[in-house]
Amino acid sequence: MTFEPSDIVPDSERRGLIGALPAPLRPYASLMRLDRPIGAWLLYWPGAWAVALAGMGPRGISLLLWLGLGAWAMRSAGCVWNDIVDRDLDRQVERTRLRPLASGRASLRGAWALLAVLCLIGVVVLLQLPRLAEIVALASLGPVAAYPFMKRITWWPQAWLGVVFSWAALVGWPSVRGEIGATVLLLYAGAIAWVIGYDTIYALQDREDDALVGVRSSALALGSRARAGIAGFYAVALCFWAAALWRVRPDGLALIALLPMALHLGSQVLRLKLDDADDALARFRSNRFAGLLMFLACLVVGTTS
């Protein structure tokens, strides 16, 4: 595929935060999605939930801040790694053909260097955590590295993304409690189901292109049953989360605290337009607010138990 000069630089690099950077840096800022923080928020929330549900502890605020920096660095690193692996596929998909590596605006060597810098930031964050949390965080590197290949071998890469994007819960809980138990495993399982649901919504944007180039996704696997499938995963998430909150505080407050999150997820499903890419993107992005609602539920239950 060839690109006309007017096509090579997307509008996102001519305005906003990226547009304010020196021109040579803009493709690399795009490579790490500097103008699209939604992914960092979605990676961050499960860790914040775990810290809140564990009762915050004496380092609660600082842990939330360090986990936030780690989520930003690791999400950015994940985007760079994903684009390195997918650069040939990205050239064949309309939504991704102008990504920096796919279009040639960024060099492969520069991408590897950026990835190394982001990983060093991750190491700094890692050193702020207790030993068990450090070990758990390091164990995530294998699933993270494998994720870009999942869309080539399974119809459910969203499930693998759920494993990866929910991992921070397994880091946040032992950072406060010093152990991993049933409560955080329930929280983690619910987060995986949540990720599968919202990333299926995201994948609705690319169904036609994915089918043409042979990329697999849960949106394609579910087909006309996508709405029911998303609703099902959200329902499973709520059940796991209710069980986790109940273990911390076994009374009705735990379930009431979860109600705003349940209503928000239900609204997503009911209002979703399956054949409207812009609507799918908007519903996907609304999960940043959903994560906040869940954080507040965990904070209420965790700090009043």
Summarize the structure.
The protein is mainly α and 305 residues long. Helices cover 75% and strands 0% of the residues. The chain has one domain: Tetracycline Repressor, domain 2 (Orthogonal Bundle), CATH 1.10.357.
Walkthrough of the structure:
The protein has 305 residues and is mostly helical. It has a single domain, classed as Tetracycline Repressor, domain 2. 75% of the residues lie in helices and 0% in strands. The chain contains 18 helices and no strands. α5 runs antiparallel to α11 and α12 packs antiparallel against α15. The protein is globular and about 55 Å long.
Query: Number of helical runs?
Result: 18
H and E string: HHHHHHHHHHHHHHHHHH
Spatial shape: globular
Q: Which band does the percent of strand residues land in?
A: under 5%
CATH topology, what is it called? Tetracycline Repressor, domain 2
Tell me the Rg in angstroms: 19 Å
Helix content: over 70%
| Overall number of structural domains | 1
What's the CATH architecture name?
Orthogonal Bundle
Q: Specify the biggest β-sheet.
A: none
Structural class by secondary-structure content: mainly alpha
List keywords for this structure.
305 residues, mainly alpha, Tetracycline Repressor, domain 2, 75% helix, globular, disordered N terminus
List the helices and strands and how they pair.
Layout: H1 5-8, H2 16-19, H3 26-31, H4 38-53, H5 60-90, H6 100-103, H7 108-126, H8 131-139, H9 141-153, H10 157-165, H11 168-177, H12 182-203, H13 207-213, H14 218-222, H15 226-248, H16 252-271, H17 277-285, H18 287-304
